[in-house]
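Most newcomers find our protein records easier to grasp once they have seen one. There is nothing in a record beyond a sequence line and a structure line. Getting from the letters to the tokens is the skill we practise here. An example says more than a description, so a record of this kind follows:
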Amino acid sequence: MTEIKHITIKDITEYTPCKEPALYITSKRDVADYLTSKGEAVCICVNSEEQLPAFEGYKYFITEGVQYSGHLDMVYCHIKNIPYVIGEDEDFIIREECPEDLPKILEMYEDSACKEFLEPLPPLNSPPDYITPERRYESVKNGYMLFEYGMWIIELKEGGEVIGRVGFEYFDESTVSLGFMIRKDKRKKGYAFKACLNCITYMKVNHPELKIVAKVSKKNIASLGLLTKITNMLPGYIEVLVEK
């Protein structure tokens, strides 16, 4: 994964273009406007909500004195419209969804096993739940930023194929629910197991306060076996909820 520099600037005279990807952090409106005019990614640092109106038009803020390493990398990627990578294996990366992924996601959901065991995606073309791909993407991206988790894309490093989804959904105030799916022709290759381990590790590092559960039908033998393998390897990390 590419390293992103976090550079704090208090005055315009301190600015020097960075050759590496960089997120500039400032608490000054004139500095923020100048950096934006130069095409830089800018995040505003404030110490109270009263300062927010002075930065109308800016979307990304942090609170002074709080550490945000991974969050800042996500901010940079969102400003630059780059899917944020939350983890990787030797064979694949796990990244945020982008608009181009939607047809591939819908195709995966047409598989009979997915239809039997997974809840359908929200309708994309029928009232009253009408939602365009663009609106769906904005909703998904906002969720990533707000919660720092969601359903991510599994993409092969070689060839860039989208082969599945993995991640977490809201369960209750203190709990998230693990979910995963792998494209039919890529199953039984270990991708789901490695992707789930990667995501669980991400969540335990970034949100240790949240409990992880996995809901699975007792008829879904393959997923039950996978989750049993995970709980044996990571005892105490995840609770499996078997549904009838």
Q: What stands out?
A: Residues 12 and 31 are 5 Å apart (CA to CA). The helical segments are 29-37, 69-79, 102-109, 112-117, 133-147, 191-206, 221-233. The longest helix spans residues 191-206.
